[in-house]
Amino acid sequence: MKKCLIILLCFSSIFLCSCWDARELSDIGIVVMTGFDLDHDGNQRVTVLSVQPFGQTQNQENVATTWIGTAAGKSTFDALRNLRRTSTRSLTWMHNKIILIGEEKARQGISDITDLLTRNSEFRYGNLIFVTPGEASEMMQVPANLEKSLFRELLGIIEGAGEWSKGFALNVKELSLNSLASYQNGFVIGNMGFYYSSKTPFTIDFQEYLKLYWKDTEQPIAYVSGGAVIDKDRLVGWLSPIELRGYLILSNKIEQSFSIYKEITDPGFKITVDITNVESKLEFPYVSDDNITAAVTVKATGFITELYGEIPAYDETFIKKIEDIVAQEIASEIYLAVNRAQNDLRTDFLGFHKVFKVRYPKQWEKLKENWCEVFSRIPVSYNVNLKIRHRGLMGKYFHTEDW
């Protein structure tokens, strides 16, 4: 009996798995950010930020934990493979979060990037896409100010972009849907960049500050603000932060809230209103073979956050006046986005075509081949209905004499 049991155990051990071909954590590089550019020869250039894990027993105090790698190739995938020329570890993109495209590459075309991100299973659909003025490789070398790495700092900035509604992030899934549309009429990608500042963005001991060798030079500060317009898989223009917010309002993409500041010279006061619960609707009141009109309706709720100056009477009449003033300001921001689309870029990145082809399929079949020209001639009316639901903790206002 014992012999049979021993023979059975020996036989079963043949089918047991082992760790002979396993990869240790210290053998891989976890790519968290990938940038795409064109090099001077017209080849595709890829830059990556890779987190380099180390074992717990090793001394990590003076060891770099993030590797910046770059390589060029005839195609984007070829460039990715060529990273192995200088990488000491096997790179994996399973945890990549940010895709950054340089301006020159975006103007040449991003269809190859879209195809790579869609076909390669290592890139998740949740990756966030941005276009940057200049080169992606330059942006990815900006040092972090507060966080331990640029990647962590950018994630925090991206998360905060929804709180002021002047920044925007598009993911790979949305990029693929826009790029694969039968009749592409443009779409918006977020803008990521950096500016230089002579002010130190963090606080330290004065004695430590005196030791900083770069304290008298300007330092780059990363930001996410505005947007980039893509038409036929190419960058055709940029959106300012205000134009982007008008686009987000019209497209029902306001994640949280945004603020409107207004100075009223007669009688003379300043006010800031926080706008929430924004709902917009696009309709086409009149459609014929010769003429199309569009109407934008917006409903929103406002909260007074600041109010000071010369105010005649803090009553319902005054509140109604504020509602009208702020509503006009919201309408003007939407108008800026529409004007940018119709007259400057002449591409329907606002999505008018999506609404029109659903509600008027027969007319769409006639107009779809020349929709951008039709879209640029559509007169648009704006109706913003703003209700101030809360006036803050104060029932009065501060009076200033120097107005």
Automatic annotation (TrEMBL):
It comes from the Bacteria. Gene3D superfamilies: Nutrient germinant receptor protein C, domain 3 (3.30.300.210). GO terms for cellular component: membrane. Keywords: Germination, Lipoprotein, Membrane, Palmitate, Signal. Transmembrane segments: none annotated. PROSITE patterns: PROKAR_LIPOPROTEIN. It is a lipid-anchor. Residues 1-22 form the signal peptide. One of its GO terms (biological process) is spore germination. Residues 21-176 form the Spore germination protein N-terminal domain. Residues 225-392 form the Spore germination GerAC-like C-terminal domain. Its main location: membrane. It is found in: Membrane. PANTHER family: SPORE GERMINATION PROTEIN B3 (PTHR35789). NCBIfam families: spore_ger_x_C (TIGR02887). Belongs to the GerABKC lipoprotein family. This is Germination protein, Ger(X)C family.
